[in-house]
């Protein structure tokens, strides 16, 4: 399998090998514990999973490629193609979008037009004021990537995804702020007193609008779903606090607490998005503080998750420090692992030199989290010397101490409890994770970390449908009394809601990410074309 040529997105996706079916004697299926693998007939053992390479891997090198049968070769497993679960309208729209995205001739002018629509200077180019433009957007890009404009539309689209077989959704409110370097510098040097009472009133209004939108999103989510949120969405005043790495203002903290309380009451989990490195250290601080408050309890489930970007050199050290804090203070660390989404705006020296290094970092971290063991990439936190901070921060309180003096049988400090959202569009990464989970399932049963797979709505649907297919096969066999020794993966789709104009910047980012992952987009286009041909010739 060829590696992708560009960095992955923040909420990236995952893939499995194509569904296969193997026939076994019914007696063997129903009366023996069978170990399934990609090698076909039942086996008693499997070769160990190759270790993930470290960040020092030579540029251009390839990692060990561990395959697995994603959809479990059961006699009664579904034989229809994974994409058969999608309606014809989705197939045709996906084919149109991926054809444009994978064609340099078509993509550049389309992206330029979409960028203008995202920042319209005339009524004609404003989809909220031009009904014809709005209709075109609604039937193409908006329908492909977004959940709807109204709560009723969002509920309908969430239900449709769950009827397809998804475990749930990751729902986000469209309000977001993405700044260039000059805007960041201007906010960072602005005085708190600038604007006086008018500025403070605007800050409160921004926080209130963000809080209300996020609370509405939590209310739209169902039991077990996720809600994604950005702290920068609370307005420029909040961005200033993040830039200075100060605590959230009383008004903002009160708003975040209200959101967390609502999510906890509804059993909805919150994913705090990663953002640009100018504000990320403070986002990490705030996220850990709210994890302290909400990630404790007998059920050992996280309410608040932080996001960690594997393309940053600092991520392994940052994550290991947070693991040590969570272990010392007794809370569950919620982790969303991504490759990274701000390659075009981040200082280049903060990012690994090669994609191979990013891939190896991602896989090494994922393996350590799934196993709850330190490794070559994710190493135990060393409390001294502390990592340099990009901006002044308050001295750590005694409650942040991470030195317990305890060690495990490996000689490493104990590993905190972890809940993980593995967000990746990368085939190898997800196959490795599935392989690890299936090995654990055979040996430890339910004693595994909470793990969900997430990918963006409208991207790589061929991949996610294979994942849904795999889970469906496992559930069907379990319902028939078959003792299954592989996991039914939990697949989630990430999508945002809001008006066409509110979602426009989000759509620009999605379009840019499609361009940066041309090989993946081409794979999806081919899969959609193949499925359309199958339906036209009457395939089943």
Automatic annotation (TrEMBL):
Cofactor(s) required for function per UniProt: FAD
Region Disordered, residue ranges: 39-65, 376-418
GO biological process: L-proline catabolic process to L-glutamate
Entry-linked SUPFAM superfamilies: FAD-linked oxidoreductase
Comp. bias (Pro residues): 382-397
EC numbers on record: 1.5.5.2
Biased composition, class Low complexity, residue ranges: 51-61, 398-414
Catalytic activity: L-proline + a quinone = (S)-1-pyrroline-5-carboxylate + a quinol + H(+)
A GO cellular-component term linked to this record: mitochondrion
Residues in Proline dehydrogenase domain copies: 157-521
Keywords per UniProt: FAD, Flavoprotein, Oxidoreductase, Proline metabolism
Molecular function, one GO term: proline dehydrogenase activity
PANTHER family in the record: PROLINE DEHYDROGENASE, PROLINE OXIDASE
Function in brief: Converts proline to delta-1-pyrroline-5-carboxylate.
Family in the record: Belongs to the proline oxidase family.
Protein name, entry field: Proline dehydrogenase
Organism of this sequence: Ajellomyces dermatitidis (strain ATCC 18188 / CBS 674.68) (Blastomyces dermatitidis)
